[in-house]
Amino acid sequence: MISVGATLLVILLLILGFPLWLVFLSAGFALLTLTGAGIPPDMLASRMFSSLNVYALLAVPGFIFAAELMVRGGMSNRLINWVTVLLGRVPGGVPVTTIVASEVFGAISGSSTATVAGIGKVLYPGLRQSGYGENFSLGLITSMGAIAVIVPPSITMILYGAVASVSVGDLFLAGIGPAILIGILITLYCIWYALRHSITSEAGKWDAAAVWRETKSAAWTLGAPVIIFGGIYSGFFTPTEASMVLSVYALIVTTCIYRDLSFKGVWEVAVEAALLTGKIFTIVAAASVFSVVLVIENIPDTMVGALTGWNMSPFMILLMLNLILLIAGMFMDPNSAIVVLVPLLLPIAVAAGIDMIHFGIIMTVNLAIGMFTPPFGLNLFVSTSIFNVSVGKVVRGVIPFILVYLVSLLVISYVPDISLWIPNALK
C-alpha cells in the first residue's frame, strides 16, 4: 500500500505543477514518515550529499560549460556552415545536411534543445526553399535534435554511468553505433520522401574553394571531438578530465582565436552553465531520497520477483522495459528519468541477462524519443517557439520520424552488437 501511495503522491504533485526535485523530496520525506523507518533527517541530508559525491558527475558541469561556450562563441555556427557547404550540393543535400549537422552538433553541444535551435535557424529556410513540406521540415529538425541525447558525449549517459556504476567511456563508445544507425534510417526515409513527392535534386556545382574556406574556418571547432575521443580512448585522460580539457579548449578558441565571445560573455555563459548544473544536481540529490523509500519498501526486488514468477522471456521483458521507458519519456526529461528509473529497472534488466552497457543505451534511446513525443516532449515546444507555429503542426510533422526512431529502437534493443561491438573491440 505504501508503494501505491508513493506513486499516487508523485503523480498528484506533478499534476499540481510542483518542481520535480520538490516532488521527490516531499514524497520521500512523507513516505519515510509513514513507513516508520526511523531514519533521522540528518541522515537523509547526508544521503543527498553522498549521491553527488560521484567522480563521474564532475563531467556534467564541464561538458555543459564547454557546450555553452561553443554555442555562444560561434564554434557551432562554423560547424553548421562547414557541413552545409560540404553536403548541401549532393542530391537530397539539405535533409542530409540537416541529419549530419545534427549528429556532429549534438556531439559537441550535448544538448537536444540547443541542437533544435541551432540547426533549425540555419537549415529550416533551406528545407522549405528546396521544396520540402512544412510538416516534414519541422519534423526532421525537431526529431534530429534528440540525437544529441544519444551521440557521445551525452549528459544522460554520464548520469546513467554514475547511477548504475558502469564505465562512462564504454557508454560513449556504445552510443556511436546507434547514433549512426538512426542517422542512416532517417536518411533513407528522407530519400524516400523526396522521391515520393518528386522533389528535384538541388545538386549543383561543387565549389572546392568554398569547401576549403569553410574547412579552415571550422578547423578549430573540428578539433573538439578529436580532443574528446582521442584523449579518452588513448588513455590520456578520463571522460571527466576530458570535459575540463574541452572547457579550456573552447574558452581559448572562442575568446582568443575566433574572438566571438567577450569576457563578459564568458561570465554569462558560466552563470548559465552553473544554473543548469545546479538544476540537474538538485534533481539527482532529491531523487536519492526517494530511492531510499524504494529500497525500504523493497520495490526493485519485488518487481524482479514478480517478473520471474510470470516466467516472461528475456524478449518480452525487454519489450516491457521499452514500453515503460517510452511512456516515462513522454512526461519526464532524460536526466530526471535516469535518476528515477535506473534503480527500479536495472535489476530487472540484469535478471533478464541484459548487459548493463546495452541497457544504458536502450534507456538513452527511449528517453531521446521522449524529447519529441507528445504530450510533453521538450523539443516540440522549442520548435513551436523558434518557428512560430502551433504545437499540433509540429506534432504532425514528427509522427513519421517517431516511427523511424521506433524501428531503430527495436533493432538496437534486440541486436546488442550494434551498441557493444565497439567497446568490446577496444577492450
From TrEMBL:
Domain TRAP C4-dicarboxylate transport system permease DctM subunit, first and last residues per copy: 9-418
Membrane topology field: Multi-pass membrane protein
Matching InterPro entries: DctM, TRAP_DctM
Record field: transmembrane: 7-32, 52-71, 138-160, 172-195, 218-236, 242-261, 273-296, 308-329, 336-354, 360-382, 394-415
Localization per record: Cell inner membrane
Pfam family name, one: DctM
Record keywords: Cell inner membrane, Cell membrane, Membrane, Transmembrane, Transmembrane helix, Transport
Family per record: Belongs to the TRAP transporter large permease family.
Protein name, UniProt field: TRAP transporter large permease protein
Organism: Neopusillimonas maritima
